[in-house]
Design a protein that fits this description.
By secondary structure, this protein is an alpha/beta fold. It contains 13 helices and 16 strands. Strands 3-2-1-4-5-9-14 form a 7-stranded parallel β-sheet, sandwiched between helices. The chain is globular and about 60 Å long.
Length: about 350
């Protein structure tokens, strides 16, 4: 039996480079990456990871249809992982054209390249985002599912950060599953949802299976500490080492689901290699809630700083959501996947790596 042929857009990045290595022992792997400084500066180990000669590296941009088409034709992949994307809620508000050019048009170029130059492709797996849910799953005072409304900037300016329904009643957060209605609250989120729609619609009725993993907050060694728009934990690590006081938005009780990059890579690996790929959208996270203020305090302690070296600012950003925790039961049952690393262990790995990278 011939070896699988894998093509990974964004394949030299934080997640992609690890995925390329994980797959390279049993497959021929080609990574396609534009090496944008915002994502790659200060992280030479990600590029080095795919540069030992066992992985084919193509420098190119998903916005360049001719280059992408040529790379797909040369690799003739059986499985395509689409990880290339502009990320960051805040930046997308300022640069909507750039986000749509990369995330939406880049995906369209990939579809056309596969149709025209990639007849061997059987699976396309996209790195989706939990941001497509907006505020996500909530219940009312009686425990019934309720639709959260976008938070009112005037209330937030007054220090009221609660999530409410359309009648103004305060809601209680719940675990978010793929059954939760999508309600993107940022340009970034809308562009990521469009990626999902486009792939599902463009390959409908073909032999190409489309898999979607909606990722929660991915973190770990190798994540850019220089990119101000992504990776809050790596940003904290840099700020702590610089002796800064950490500035925590809203009232500090923003809740996130942090999942270590190694666990995410395993989910992607399984999606590409399992006998029958799950048809459902799968949520990938730890399934555990962690408040930003608690995580910041833990990291300060790991660096030997006082856990009080932070300040609650009350500031907020358009498109930010209050509570995000995944229900990962579908990934467990359909993919046989579960996170293996606790948040505390993962934070220690990040802290140790950032010290070595300083």
């Amino acid at each position: 039996m011939s070896r699988p042929r894998i093509f990974i857009t964004g394949g030299a990045g934080f997640i992609g480079s690890r995925l390329a290595v994980a797959l390279s022992a049993a497959a021929d792997v080609t990574v396609y990456d534009n090496f944008h400084p915002q994502a790659h500066d200060g992280n030479p180990e990600n590029r080095a990871r795919v540069s030992d000669g066992s992985i084919s590296v193509v420098e190119g941009d998903v916005r360049d249809p001719d280059a992408l088409s040529a790379a797909i034709a040369a690799a003739d992949p059986t499985v395509v992982y689409h990880l290339a994307a502009e990320t960051g809620t805040g930046q997308s508000f300022d640069l909507p054209a750039r986000y749509n050019d990369v995330n939406v048009m880049g995906t369209a170029h990939l579809v056309e390249a596969i149709r025209g130059k990639g007849p061997s492709v059987k699976r396309v797996i996209v790195a989706g985002s939990r941001s497509v849910y907006g505020e996500g799953a909530y219940v009312d005072a009686e425990g019934r599912a309720a639709m959260a409304q976008e938070r009112d900037p005037a209330r937030m300016e007054a220090g009221d950060f609660a999530v409410r329904d359309d009648a103004g009643n305060v809601l209680t957060p719940a675990l978010t599953t793929a059954a939760c209605p999508v309600a993107p609250a940022s340009v970034y989120a809308s562009s990521k949802l469009m990626q999902e729609y486009m792939l599902a619609q463009c390959f409908w009725g073909t032999d190409v299976d489309v898999g979607i993993l909606r990722l929660q907050n991915v973190y770990g060694p190798g994540q850019s500490m220089n990119n101000p728009y992504t990776g809050v934990l790596s940003i904290f690590a840099r700020q702590i080492q610089e002796g800064q006081i950490l500035k925590i938005f809203e009232d500090g009780d923003i809740v996130r689901d942090f999942v270590l990059v190694d666990d995410v890579v395993e989910a992607f690996r399984l999606m590409g290699t399992c006998e029958e790929m799950p048809a459902d959208v799968l949520d990938i996270g730890s399934g555990e809630a962690a408040s930003i203020v608690d995580v910041a305090g833990s990291m300060l302690g790991m660096f030997g700083r006082s856990e009080k070296d932070l300040t609650i600012t009350g500031q907020f950003r358009p498109g930010d959501i209050r509570h995000a925790v995944a229900d990962i039961s579908a990934a467990r049952s359909q993919l046989g996947w579960a996170p293996q690393v606790t948040l505390r262990e993962g934070l220690q790995r990040l802290v140790d790596w950032s010290r070595q990278s300083d």
